[in-house]
Design brief:
alpha/beta; Rossmann fold; six-stranded mixed beta sheet; four-stranded antiparallel beta sheet
């Protein structure tokens, strides 16, 4: 994997690694892809959709493993209908399901895949050692894979997709079966595939949180149709809502303000803000979503909380979530998942939201 990094996904760059035009795939009872027209440029790109949205069907067509009913597709400038074998020589693929022979070591398996990709024997062994080191399996490379954990098996699948130094890798649900720590490690590996080696990545998943913090660009499909294709930053841009979390009242607060006994702190803050002309909606006893009119709203909230004798746990501007595309009601003030209200949610944490 010797190539130097090629940089991050840049809007406006015309060179596409994947391009489809009116791509359609019909089965007897369902249309898996419906006039899909999209362009994927170099970088780490997420293919987002609920189960059954058409993601796996699209990957099979892009690899030349299934024919489209109509429309056109290109991968690295090669027609998917006529040049599938050439595409598979230049592209790495990590399948969703387990496909590893249990009695074979990671080294044997990855060398075999490298040889199938056309590498000479010596180069295949050398590249296998380098790739297994990159994915963190060098010390375990001679163990039979039947004794590997789920995370180790996922790393072997990633290694075999990278061993022949492809220009593009297609990763189908690479974090399946992993715990939060394992998911974070896999996502870091995926980022490094592009940043360290300049290999473009198309990663599919129905877990949206991990894509928000890993990908430069997102392609969202639903029912086989393109729902949206744009930068991750545009999906998670700031909203006109503040997430405000406060502490409980101090124990002696009832003596200072007699009407405060038994009141929820969030409700008390809301009443004070309403009197000051600031709209707020409680989300539980300690969390409020406050409409951000202008910069003075920050001062009003801070002063109100202080006047009530409460502590301010956080005061942060909400960001949109990719998950809102899959809900009927995406009103700024109706997201009760306060772990994702903060600005850091687009690139931090381990929580994921299913698109289904």
């Amino acid at each position: 994997m010797p190539r130097a990094a090629q940089g991050r996904y840049v809007e406006g760059v015309s060179t596409a690694v994947i391009r489809t035009d009116g791509l359609t795939k019909r089965f007897p009872r369902v249309t898996a892809l419906d006039q899909l027209t999209v362009e994927v440029r170099p970088g780490v790109v997420g293919l987002v959709g609920s189960n059954g949205a058409g993601k796996s069907t699209l990957i099979k067509i892009l690899l030349g493993l299934a024919p489209a009913t109509s429309g056109r597709g290109e991968v690295l400038g090669l027609d998917v209908a006529t040049r599938g074998s050439e595409i598979r020589e230049r592209v790495g693929y990590m399948p969703e399901h387990d496909c590893l022979p249990p009695d074979v070591s990671a080294t044997e398996f990855v060398v075999h895949m490298a040889r199938m990709a056309g590498l000479p024997a010596t180069a295949a062994r050398e590249r296998t050692a380098d790739t297994l080191r990159h994915v963190g399996l060098y010390e375990e490379r001679y163990r039979p894979m039947g004794g590997y954990s789920t995370g180790m098996k996922q790393r072997v699948k990633l290694a075999q997709a990278l061993v022949h130094d492809p220009k593009l890798v297609l990763l189908d649900e690479p974090t399946n079966g992993l715990d939060p720590a394992g998911r974070d490690e896999m996502l870091a590996l995926i980022r490094r595939v592009h940043s360290d080696f300049g290999i473009s990545v198309l990663v599919t998943t129905h877990l949206l949180g991990e894509l928000e913090r890993t990908c430069d660009h997102l392609v969202v499909i639903d029912g086989g149709k393109l729902l949206r294709s744009s930068s991750t930053a545009s999906f998670t841009e700031a909203t006109a809502v503040l997430a405000v979390e406060v502490t409980d009242f101090p124990e002696d607060h009832g003596r200072e303000q007699p009407g405060a006994i038994g009141r929820e702190p969030g409700a008390a803050v809301r009443e004070r803000l309403a009197a000051a002309g600031v709209e707020a909606q409680p989300e539980g006893s300690h969390l409020l979503l406050v409409r951000l009119a202008d910069e003075s709203t920050y001062d009003t909230v801070r002063d109100t909380v202080a006047e009530l004798g409460l502590g301010l746990v956080r005061l942060e501007q909400r960001r949109h979530r990719v998950a809102e595309l899959f809900t009927d009601d995406s009103d700024d003030t109706r997201d009760t998942d306060d772990t994702h209200d903060a600005q850091h949610s687009s690139r931090g944490g381990t929580d994921d939201v299913a698109a289904s």
